[in-house]
Amino acid sequence: MTKLPNSQYLTWFNEIEKILWSFYKHFENLCSECALYTISSVKNSSRENRFNWCCCMIDNQVNDNWETLNNVQSRFDNNWYEKIKKNSFDLGRNRMPGNGPCPALGPSGCLLTKLRPVTCTTQLCEKMLIILQRLKIIPGFKSVPLQIEDIVPLKNILPILYGYHKDKKVKLEEKLEYIKAIKELTTRFGSIDRQIRKNIINEVILEFKK
Ligand code: SF4
Ligand code: SF4
């Protein structure tokens, strides 16, 4: 039988994910524009650039991580899945390139209000990486997508906190180091002049729409 995740670790995970959300907020309207572009391509039956479509529409992290995610979410609400399914974004009968859309995707973004799958919590898609590179926050990158631990030298503690490796432990200092590093990254990203940041984001959005 699968052991339930450690509640202290989930509290730490939630603490870290909130800080990561502050980092991702600096991408402004990138994800909403990406989603709108994807919806419009689907409606127009245009599958050009489909591998650049909104990740939540082409992936299904709920399905891919079902066992662990269900263990985590059920600690707080046994009916979590039924609730998100009621509000899932409806893409009709359109077939998507991957196994998406993810059932946790609602009309305004992810319906999971905390403890999202690890990949969703740390993923940097190609558009994000290009933006970070053009803003000189990261050097060039060789592959896409990456996880946050690929651009900041950090121990990959989130899968352990989420309950994937029951035999491994995370020390308090490791959690604090992780938080410190993400806060520093967030400060660097946020300290760039907002108009400059928005211009680069819009530039990348336009390039991906071509
Ligand atoms: S993370 Fe990247 S691929 Fe996913 S919705 Fe945002 S911009 Fe699009
Ligand atoms: S769980 Fe949320 S963030 Fe992750 S793929 Fe599904 S909708 Fe997107």
How would you explain this protein's 3D organization?
The chain is mainly alpha-helical and 210 residues long. 55% of the residues lie in helices and 4% in strands. The protein has one domain (7-209). It has helices spanning 7-25, 30-43, 55-58, 61-64, 66-74, 80-87, 118-122, 126-134, 148-151, 158-162, 172-190, 194-209; strands at residues 105-106, 109-110, 123-124, 146-147. The strands form two sheets. A two-stranded antiparallel sheet has the order 1-2. It is globular, with a radius of gyration of 18 Å. The chain starts with 6 loop residues before the first helix and ends with a helix. One iron/sulfur cluster (SF4) is lined by residues 56, 59, 61-62, 102, 104-105, 110, 112, 116-117, 120.
Low-confidence stretches: none
Amino- and carboxy-terminal Cα gap: 49 Å
Mean pLDDT: 94
List of distinct ligands in this structure: iron/sulfur cluster
Q: DSSP helix count?
A: 12
Structural domain count:
1
Structural class: mainly alpha
Number of beta-strand segments: 4
Radius of gyration: 18 Å
Strands across the major sheet, in which order? 1-2
Portion in helices: 55-70%
Question: Which sheet architecture does the biggest sheet show?
Answer: 2 strands, antiparallel
Order of helices and strands: HHHHHHEEHEHEHHHH
Q: Which word captures the global form?
A: globular
Beta-strand residue fraction: under 5%
